[in-house]
Structures are given as C-alpha cells and as structure tokens.
Amino acid sequence: MIQEEQDPDNKMSLPKVRSHITIEITVSRELYRRMRAAANQDNLSLNEYIERTLEEAVPGEASLTQRQYRPITREAIEGLREIREEIMRDRGGKPFEQDSTELLREEREKRTRQLMGEDYEL
Questions:
Q1: Which residue ranges form the domains of the chain, and what is each CATH number?
Q2: Percent of all residues in the chain with a pLDDT value above 90, rounded to a whole number
Q3: Is 43 left (phi over 0), alpha (psi -120 to 50) or beta?
Q4: Which of 15, 29, 117, 119 has the most other CB atoms within 10 Å of its CB?
Q5: Alpha-carbon distance 30 to 36, whole Å?
Q6: How many angstroms separate the CA atoms of 105 and 122, rounded?
Q7: How many whole angstroms separate alpha carbon 43 and alpha carbon 52?
Q8: Worst-scoring range by mean pLDDT, 26-30, 66-70, 99-103?
C-alpha cells in the first residue's frame, strides 16, 4: 500500500509532491529479525537500513533507460573458444558447409509449416 497526501482543493485529487512516500510490505519473521540485527550492527534505524539497502540494489534512472550489457570477460571469451573447438572436433575439423543464416531461415520456415499445417506455403 502506498500512502500519499491528497490535496483537498484539487478536483482531480492528484498527490502532493513529497520527498518520501510510505509503503507497506510483509516479510517473514526470520527476514525481519535479520534486517533488524543488520540495522543495529550499522547503528541505523530499520527504515534507514532498508532505504540504504534499496538505494544500493535498485538501478538509478539513467541505468533504467539504458540497455544493460554485461562486460565481456576473458573467461567468457575463453569459454566461447572452447565451445568452438569442441564443435570443430565433433565435425572432424570441417566448418559448416551452409551459411548459418540460411540454416536458421530453413528451420524457421519448417517450424512455421508445422504450426500452420503442412499444406501452408511460405
């Protein structure tokens, strides 16, 4: 539940601009106990602790409007190389004879025919 102050003079009853709103959540007793202990350990009120934790966890406005990309790591590149080598070993060192774009198109068309009925022509 979100509680916002309402302007009684405003016919549309739009919320007043406030720097904070109140939300109500339900958590397990165990989680509540852990949050309370963590707040006490940091010498914070439970409200301060939760707000700080959410500030760290929730992306900022700029991050929400930009596409999120994971950085490419050396481990990821090495993993891709290993997969490529495994495929080449499985194929006896021969690359695919057909362009992968064409393979994907053919499989997509085949699947569409299956879904639409065999007599469906693309």
A1: 2-65 (1.10.1220), 74-116 (no CATH)
A2: 34
A3: left
A4: 15
A5: 10
A6: 11
A7: 13
A8: 66-70
User: Of 75, 83, 21, which is closest to residue 47 (Cα–Cα)?
Assistant: 21
Residue 115's Cβ-side half-sphere holds a number of Cα atoms within 13 Å equal to: 7
Sign of the CA dihedral running 36, 28, 50, 66: positive
How big is the CA angle at 113 (ends 109 and 119), to the nearest 5 degrees? 130
Mean pLDDT of the chain: 80
What is the end-to-end Cα distance of the chain in Å, rounded? 52
Helix (H) or strand (E) holding 2: strand 2-3
Distance of CA 83 to the CA centre of its chain: 26
Q: With beta carbons less than 8 A apart as the criterion, state whether 122 and 113 touch.
A: yes
According to DSSP, the residues that pair with 3 across neighbouring strands are 22
Distance of alpha carbon 67 from alpha carbon 49, whole angstroms: 29
Q: In this structure, what token pair is assigned to residue 61?
A: 């406005």
- Which residues are paired to 103 by β-bridges? none
